[in-house]
Amino acid sequence: MKIYGLTGSIGMGKSAVAAMLRREGVPLFDADAEVHRLQGPGGALLPAIEARFPGTTGPKGVDRGKLGAAVFGHPQELKALEAIVHPAVQQSRKAFLRRHRSRKFVVLDIPLLFETHGYRKLAGVIVVTAPAWKQRKRVLARPGMTAAKFRRIVHLQIPDAEKRRRADYIIHTGTTFAETRFQVRRLVACLGAKRVR
User: Fold this and answer.
1) Residue 25's CB: how many other CB atoms inside 10 A?
2) Do the annotations mark residue 79 as ligand-binding?
3) 13 annotated to a ligand binding site
4) Could you give the dihedral angle defined by the CA atoms of residues 113, 147, 37 and 33, in that order, rounded to the nearest 10 degrees?
5) CATH of domain 1-190
6) 158-185 b/e with 16+ CB inside 10 Å = b?
7) Is 118 annotated among the ligand-binding residues?
8) Fewer Cβ atoms within 10 A, N terminus or C terminus of the chain?
């Protein structure tokens, strides 16, 4: 089984591409979705998060506003949160890989793939990209997003041009839905045709 990584900066259309890959029958592990599950109502991480960051959880799971306020701009606090979250996500990812070990290939959706150096053990990296003006328009349309917040997020991520330079495969979403879907189908056919060594 070959393992490919899917990544892209905020607002590039990675979630849409992930959904298209799933519709094509590709097993896909979504790291963000797994974090939401682990931190949601009854989530396995709630006791540890509450113990470390009192008052940030409740019946609906993690209060993202309160937890964000506790860690944003505080590197040590962010590291403490990551020490709780990352091992749990890694366990879930291992279970996903075991479940799909008979498949020719799988995709791991990892937003900060290059930032966390997670690309090193992969067969290849798929980068989702779009023009900067479209990225900005998409992100600023999100509830609660501001231009300043968008700039901060972009500043923390590796630039799109660098991600594209390091990509093995690129999906452009700055075009029509049909064209993006065509690119995804072509990619799935390409990956499915590759021989497993």
Assistant:
1) 10
2) no
3) yes
4) -40
5) 3.40.50.300
6) eebeebeeebebbbbbeeeeeebbebbe
7) no
8) C
CA angle, 136 then 141 then 146, to 5°: 70
Q: Which of 82, 52, 84 is nearest to 66 (CA)?
A: 52
Q: Where are the domains of the chain?
A: 1-190
Asked whether residue 14 is marked as a ligand-binding residue, the answer is yes
- Which pTM value belongs to this model? 0.85
Residue 72 has a CB neighbour count (10 Å cut-off) of 10
Alpha-carbon distance of 100 to 116, in angstroms, equals 24
In degrees, rounded to 5, the angle at the alpha carbon of residue 3 between the alpha carbons of residues 109 and 8 is 30
Structural contact between residues 157 and 40, judged by C-beta atoms closer than 8 angstroms: no
* pLDDT in single tens digits along all 197 residues of the chain: 999 999 999 999 999 999 999 999 999 999 889 999 999 999 999 999 999 999 999 999 999 889 988 998 888 999 999 999 999 999 999 999 999 999 999 999 988 888 777 777 899 999 999 999 999 999 999 998 999 999 988 888 899 999 999 999 999 999 999 999 999 999 999 998 876 44
Instruction: Please state the φ and ψ torsions of residue 172, each to the nearest 5 degrees.
Output: -95, 125
